[in-house]
Amino acid sequence: MTEALIKDLHRTGCSLFSGELAEQNQALLKRVLLAYARWNKSVGYCQGFNLLAAFVLEVVDWCDRNALKARLMMIFLVEGVLPEGYFANHLRGLSVDMAVFRDLLRLRLSALARHLDDLQMGAGESSSGTSYEPPLTNVFTMQWFLTLFTTCLPKATVLRVWDLILLEGNEVLLRTALAIWDGLADRIMSVNSADEFYSIMGVLTREMVEFGLMDANELVKRFELVK
């Protein structure tokens, strides 16, 4: 557990991990993550916790006196907000949400779902292997769920989503993911292969985080369109 945690500390993309306070901030993040792992031994440390905890520390202001507040927020988010079993029992809770999400995608965004199925079918036909390939959206949507969208949306929008989750429950996870895919649909519909899909998603993710491709107000409006 500790080895995986330390590796992820160095992968945490945060502006506070550079400059004079980089080492101090990294040590604080490590303390929060270890404290949660000791609190919930059945879960321990899971990949993605570093990103979630780093965002929490940004919200409460990075300093030693707020470490306890950050730990309590981590406990609340993982055990009180995310559905049960997201990180325990081989991610069973996450697997359930992913299955529900795929059904909702086909129901609410049928044209996009069909296009993604066609891209995946084309990738399968060009491959000589027979191994199972998960749906194209999985790698992105799973990360969004596990990190509560901190990897794909700017800070102000993430906080708006978190407010909605606290007010309306964890079904907002599904609605947010649908709203994001709806907002990206036009660009994705223009690609012609699975390789192009993964390439454009790298570009779109950066545009969402760094350039506000989808702001909070637009995202909330899309909630109603895909509800």
From TrEMBL:
SMART domains: TBC (SM00164). PROSITE patterns: TBC_RABGAP. InterPro entries: Rab-GAP-TBC_dom, Rab-GAP_TBC_sf. Transmembrane segments: none annotated. Residues 1-169 form the Rab-GAP TBC domain. Signal peptide: none annotated. One of its GO terms (molecular function) is GTPase activator activity. This is Growth hormone-regulated TBC protein, putative. It comes from Ixodes scapularis (Black-legged tick).
